[in-house]
Amino acid sequence: MLVSTLTSLREIKFDFDHALDFHPNPALEKAVFKTLAYFDIFNYPLTAWEVYRYLYIKDLNKEVGFLETKNILDNNFQNKEGFYFLANRQNLVEIRKERQVISAKKYKKARRVIRLLSLLPFIKMIAVSNSLAYDNAKEESDVDLFIISKPNKIWTARFYATVVLKLLHRRPTPNITKDKICLNFFATTESLNLENLQIQNDIYFKYWLLQLTPIYDGQNYFNKLIKQNDWLTDFVNINYHCSASKKRKIKNNLIIRAIKFVLEKINSFNFIENFLKAFQFNRMPKNIKQKMNKGTTVVVNDRTLKFHLDDRREEFRDKWLNQYE
């Protein structure tokens, strides 16, 4: 958390000329409320710099500074121990502290598995997503991964990742999800712009993408992902994404990279990709096939594999809209 805070502080626009005087700014106050209201859905209070970093700016007509934002927070919203929240939600501070401890333990367990997955052919980047990405995981939560693969090798990458998780008994089941690894989102290096996967007014997907936290990234594909999705800056104040601390990141040594290279050479033939695609497609559950490519919940093609059967984006969007409308 401290590393992420210091990194973000370097991004902040300080407005010292206006630091001492508080001037009401209804538009900024509403933007701050929208930001806090979104994270309130997930029982997550924010520090002042987090509010500034995550600030929902779509309806603002000018650039705002950190100190101006903090003044709005101090004069209009409740806070406890440096965390800001909506009225009478001070209990969220303890929830956040508890979940941060839980998340640290989950990261430690997940990192061991991600190290193995990073060895597999054609996997270029592995990022943690959803609640664990911003240290808000519950005890019973699984670990959701977003994986970038080489073009035309997405099915091969997914096959080997699935096999490894099954051998390790780390795949989630309907009854057991705690600390299991969920492979629910793959994209190739040629399809990193994810804007078209949104639903209408998709506030959840915007923050989901903003909060992706790379653990393995051998060739700097995370920065490429950021650049491909610069449309986010129309909605969020700072073009800054989460970055895992050095203790959480994985960097493969020369031996591991050599093994990966050999595995990729062995699996480089097109017939292998085609065979593994057919094999996995034939084994897909009926409920996935029924929803496949009928929206953005389940997307299945040679560039993107997205399996979010329990897609709650509409629910979160409506809760958020109802908070301030």
Brief rundown of the structure:
With 325 residues, this protein is of the alpha+beta class. It has helices at residues 2-9, 26-40, 48-54, 66-76, 92-118, 154-167, 203-210, 221-228, 254-266, 270-282, 286-291, 313-324; strands at residues 78-80, 83-85, 123-129, 143-149, 181-188, 213-217, 298-300, 304-307.
Plain-language structure description:
The chain is of the alpha+beta class and 325 residues long. The protein has 2 domains: 2-90, no CATH class; 110-318, no CATH class. The chain contains 12 helices and 8 strands. The chain has helices at residues 2-9, 26-40, 48-54, 66-76, 92-118, 154-167, 203-210, 221-228, 254-266, 270-282, 286-291, 313-324, and strands at residues 78-80, 83-85, 123-129, 143-149, 181-188, 213-217, 298-300, 304-307. Strands 6-3-4-5-8-7 form a 6-stranded mixed β-sheet, with helices on one face. A two-stranded antiparallel ribbon has the order 1-2. Helix 2 (26-40) packs antiparallel against helix 12 (313-324), helix 3 (48-54) crosses helix 4 and helix 6 packs across helix 10 (270-282). The longest helix is centred in the first third of the chain and has 27 residues, at 92-118. The chain is elongated, with a radius of gyration of 21 Å. The two termini are 33 Å apart. Residues 1-9 have low confidence and may be disordered.
